[in-house]
Amino acid sequence: MNAHAAESHKNYLNETYGLKSWLLSLDHKRIGIMYLITISAFFILGGIFASFIRIELLTPKGDLFEAETYNRIFTMHGVVMIFFFLIPSIPAVLGNFLLPLMLGTRDVAFPRLNLLSFYLYGFGGTFTMLAIVLGGVDTGWTFYTPYSSTYSNSFVALALVGVFINGFSSILTGVNFIVTIHKMRAPGLTWFRLPLFVWAHYATSLLQVLGTPVVAITLLLVVFERVFNIGIFNPTLGGDPVLMQHLFWFYSHPAVYIMILPGFGVISEVIACFARRRIFGYSFIAFSSLAIAILGFFVWGHHMFVSGQSTYAGMVFSFLTFLVAVPSAIKIFNWAFTMYKGSVQLDSPMLYALGFMGLFTIGGLTGLVCATLGVVVHIHDTYFVVAHFHYVMVGGMVMAFLCGVHFWWPKITGRMYSESMGKLSVTLIYAGFNLTFLPQFVVGYLGMPRRYHTYPEEYQALNIMSTAGSSVLGLGFGLTFVYLIWSLFKGEKATANPYKAKGLEWEGMDSPPIAHNFIDIPVVMEEAYAYGPDHHGDPDPKKSSDPAKEKEVV
Amino acid sequence: MSDHHILPLKTYFLIFGALIFGTFLTVAVTYVDLGWFNTPLALLIAGTKATLVILYFMHVKYSHKLVGLFAFTGFFFIIILLALTLQDYYTRGWQEPLPVDFLDLGQNLK
Amino acid sequence: MVIQILKSPQTQLRRKKLSDTAQTVGRQHHFETAEQQYESATLGMWAFIAQEILFFGGLFGGYCVYRNLYTDAFRAASSLLDIPLGTFNTVVLIGSSLTMALAVRCAQQGRPKAIISWILATLALGSVFLVVKYFEYSHKWHDNLVPGASFEWNHPEFVNVFGGNVKIFFSFYFVMTGMHALHMVIGAFLMFWLIYKVMRGQINEHYYTPVENMGLYWHFVDIVWIFLFPLLYLIG
To answer: How confident is the model at residue C25 (pLDDT cuts 50, 70, 90)?
Structure first.
């Protein structure tokens, strides 16, 4: 189909050279690569903070750090990992790179805005790094008032300005993706022929656009409170700290869905490919992504059950939280049914995807435990909650991110990584992760509080297990970095479609793609995931006809 | 090209007139004591004015339905923010107060 | 997935449209048609406005909570705001929305001089608004009602009103109207940029998306004020 040889054809990587051609690039693929480099750097930084936490918690006494310092460490771990690693991760790297390719178009709707998003992310990151270097923040990544607004002696305002600026990066990326998906689809590519990766990013973008501004104004108010003492969160003036929590979690709960929905998108693609079957219940997965996005805005109070919020409000939020678990569960069932009677190939991306399914299920179910009003009084602010969110964020999203990076690595870089190394690292990550966080469920349920650097003697064994696990986990991540970077120089050159996957990015271009993605815009005539003999063509025969007669692009 | 329905001048001036009328109406109504209804009425007038601006000045009435959906979505989620936050404050008084003496910091929490 | 690397109808259409230079003013390469670009820009602007609605929404949310908790204090504080001045400003801002809408209409008709006149009118009215706001703010500053170190509540005629609660009202007043004013200032800069574009001949009746989007932004700023005015100034 494409006359180019797999050898060094002109592609987006070698089309132009020089730092300026990268830093000022409007090419969504180059922007995705730049994001990949920066978020990896933030991941390493966040990981360093994590290792300090785990080393301190090896012993019951607070002997490595002062309490003040420990507060700064876990705060910076949270801030860096959430705002500068997880929230951008898949959308900024894989979303940017792949969405135009999957949609059959040449770039996102607003390429200059895309570059601006990247620089806002960098700019925001710089402010936050400055706060870290000057000594950090000790309020917890949740910046609760009145501690953050009045009493803390750390660089709160500086860190918040960084997070605020970074928020606009997120918003503009969301705007870009929403318009791109609505308006830039290739002829014949109707909504229900889209890869589920696209649906997932659409839902994520809704969350980014509608949720982020609320936390933006909230953090700005905390800065004003701190700098000008305006009093709105100050109890001595009648201010209500719980109001800040309402406004903060109105975003931060949808934020956790920003930190998982793109992962769902990746998993759908990978499972379909490596089970060689179309996704079971395509429209259920598509609609469940939207349902999670919408319902996700209704449940934020479950972070505030013991804050002083009214019990009746707690009941409302608890009920709604149980509802939002349903669409996520639907996806897990659908992925499992996709594999049933498929011919499953256990390549590394598939191993990551299987790991994701198990770990996310545990994370999700323990989320329901946390959503139960009676139970949460006992486990709130204990390591049970910490374990829950690490299962969904690391066992879920980070696994999904690595899954996607591995799956699309040949397409993005034109190189193959070592499959045996891939299998080794996913095993290390999976084993290390469970050893780190499973004990935390136990120790949390037994009562060990979070954000404390000391704990009673009887929890030490479990903490030692956890720290041991984190070393294995770190080794797994480190190994991944090493062999992926190694593959850039010594990896076998990739063919256009090494996994024989379906999709415009695989079947419509070489690895790596040319700068303008397609020589001519493709015309799409079939459903997504047309794998194997048991896929059926589009159920509506009329749809496969002349795409020029399609209704206007909505 | 699409939308490009050019509205007659008269429409713009009519809407402007309605908006000014609404402004004076909302000021006038402030001085009439309608009890609890004053605030919802003010919001109703403001909402009507905003709707006129959105439909006519911002051309949403003459645009694709998707544009209207985007406009509606923003307001919908503000309603959610307000509704679910306020339901916390409204229901705080429904419980028996805790058997500890709290300082009444002007919050009238009971 | 069967993909046909054909000359899609869109590609053929683009080849034909390239000859119509008027329609390619400002068209960017990654769009297939000018229509697609226009619709994308409009949707993008609306997505941005939806975001702005939520941005101010957080402030409205906080304001609503405290107004319900401290009704008397809020009423007392609001009575210190100048209603005639606020009404005047509302009329001025609605007027500027009208002039902006008329600027967009002239853009649809391809009349550059008229566009510039209406944009200047909008700028003038917006400036009047900001000047009035400046006087209101400085008045409050002299009365020690700006939250911060200088805040002082000295109105014993309001019985049972706690100064801290009044300070909260004024915090919201200044942050909300201040954010609104900031958006107006940004809008003013954008309008100068727009006038520049019109003067350079980059706007015509086939391509006036920047003017239209400026209009959307400005109308949004107007809508925020439409809600701010009764909520802040007109508490019974």
So the answer is: low
- What was the pLDDT predicted at C19? 36
Which of A10-19, B93-102, C7-16, C218-227 has the highest mean predicted lDDT (pLDDT)? C218-227
Quote the minimal CA–CA distance from C128 to chain B in Å.
17
Report the run of H or E that residue C4 belongs to, with start and end: strand C3-4
**Distance from C-alpha of B77 to C-alpha of B82, rounded to nearest angstrom:** 9
Q: Which domains does chain C have, with CATH numbers?
A: 36-233 (1.20.120.80)
Q: Which residues of B touch A313 (CB under 8 A)?
A: 84, 87-88, 91
Cis peptide before A512 (omega within 30 of 0): yes
> Is the predicted pLDDT of residue A543 greater than 60, yes or no?
no
B82 and B70 share one domain: yes
At C164, the pLDDT band (50, 70, 90 cuts) reads confident
Q: Is the pLDDT of residue A1 over 90?
A: no
**pLDDT tens-digit map of A174-193:** 999 999 999 999 999 999 99
Based on the domain organization, do B33 and B80 belong to the same domain? Answer: no
Q: Percentages helix, strand, coil for chain A, rounded to the nearest 5?
A: 70, 0, 30
- Please report all neighbours of C, defined by 3+ CB atom pairs within 8 A: A, B
Give residue A104's region: left, alpha or beta (phi > 0; psi -120 to 50): left
Residues B2 and B44 in one domain: yes
Q: Where are the alpha helices (DSSP H) in chain B?
A: 9-30, 38-52, 65-91
Query: What is the helix (H) or strand (E) element at residue A156, kind and residue range?
Result: helix A156-183
> In a 10 Å sphere around its CB, with 0-12 CB exposed, 13-18 middle and 19+ buried, how is residue A532 labelled?
middle
Nearest-CA distance C30 → chain A (Å): 5
Please state, in angstroms and rounded to a whole number, the distance separating the CA atoms of residues A116 and A175.
12
Q: Coil, strand, or helix at residue A260?
A: coil
> What is the per-residue pLDDT across B45-77, written as a single tens digit (0 to 9) for each?
999 999 999 999 999 999 989 999 999 999 999
Based on the domain organization, do B53 and B72 belong to the same domain? no
- Model's pTM, two decimal places? 0.92
Chain A interface includes B107 (CB < 8 A): yes
* Residue A231 three-state SS: coil
Which of B88, B91, B105 is the closest to A235 by Cβ? B105
Is residue B7 domain-shared with residue B29, that is, in the same domain?
Answer: yes
In chain A, which residue's Cα lies nearest the Cα of C43?
Answer: A179
Q: Which residues of chain C does A523 touch, with a Cβ-Cβ cutoff of 8 Å?
A: 3-4, 6, 8
Confidence of residue C28 (pLDDT cuts 50, 70, 90): confident
C180-213 residues labelled b (16+ CB within 10 A) or e (exposed)? bbebbeebbeebeebbebbeeeebbebbbbbbbb
Which residue, among C117, C21, C89, has the nearest Cα to C229 in the 3D structure? C89
Judged by CB atoms within 8 Å, which residues 11-40 of C form the interface with A? 11, 28-32, 36, 39-40
Sorted by where each starts, the structural domains of chain A and their CATH numbers stand as 29-517+527-543 (1.20.210.10)
Q: Which residues in chain B have their CB less than 8 angstroms from residue C110's CB?
A: none
Model pLDDT for residues A325-353, shown as the tens digit of each residue: 999 999 999 999 999 988 999 999 999 99
Total domain count, chain B: 2
* CA distance to B8, B31, B33, C144, per residue, from B28 (Å): 31, 6, 11, 29
- Contact flag B23-C206 (C-beta cutoff 8 Å): no
A236 touching B, CB under 8 A?
yes
Distances (CA, A) of C95 to C99, C100, C179: 6, 9, 20
> Which residues, at least 6 apart from B66, have a Cβ–Cβ distance to it below 8 Å?
A182, A554, C43
State the residue range of the domain holding B13.
1-62
The runs of H, that is alpha helices, within chain C are 9-17, 34-69, 71-79, 83-108, 112-142, 163-199, 209-233
- Considering the domain architecture, whether residues B55 and B86 belong to the same structural domain is answered as no
Element (H, E) at A160: helix A156-183
